[in-house]
């Protein structure tokens, strides 16, 4: 009995010693990374096609309506800071009287409380004009 106990204790001691030696050669971050790496991967039929479609949709240009809803609606839905309300011909009348070129310039460069490009610095000029055109269609 004593022999087996000694042998078992020796194996446990060796195992702990080897783990300690191995752990000493790795940084704490490496040990954590080794212990938390995924052990497998789940493949779902059609998942790669769905991922490709999602990536393509994320990179697709937005329509004027989508841009309006994303960046313009906050002010133009309720007239914040004097913004002409979407679909309200009376609030747009004084702006429409200035002409399309002036409206485009104001949309791109800002006007009174409206910042340039409606605070969408990543929007191209074409994006901004598409959102403006979407708003103008609601009052024509």
Approximately how much beta-strand content do the residues carry? under 5%
Low-confidence stretches: none
**What is the N-to-C order of secondary-structure elements (H for helix, E for strand)?**
HHHHHHH
In CATH, the homologous superfamily of the largest domain goes by the name Cytochrome c-like domain
Counted up, domains total 2
The global form is elongated
Query: How much is the average pLDDT?
Result: 83
Number of strands: 0
At CATH level 2, the architecture of the largest domain is Orthogonal Bundle
Q: What share of the residues lie within helices?
A: 55-70%
Q: CATH first level of the largest domain: which class?
A: Mainly Alpha
Helices, by number, come to 7
- Structural class call reads mainly alpha
C-alpha-based Rg, rounded: 32 Å
SSE map:
Blueprint: H1 2-25, H2 28-36, H3 47-59, H4 64-76, H5 89-96, H6 100-109, H7 125-137
Helix pairs in contact: 4-7, 6-7
Quick overview:
This protein is mainly alpha-helical. The protein contains 7 helices and no strands.
What does this structure look like?
The chain is mostly helical. It has two domains: 35 residues; 76 residues, Cytochrome c-like domain (Cytochrome Bc1 Complex, Chain D, domain 2, Orthogonal Bundle), CATH 1.10.760.10. Helix content is 64%, strand content 0%. It contains seven helices and no strands. Helix 4 packs across helix 7. It is elongated and about 75 Å long. The mean pLDDT is 83.
Keywords for this entry:
0% strand; 2 domains; 140 residues; mainly alpha; elongated; 7 helices; Cytochrome Bc1 Complex, Chain D, domain 2
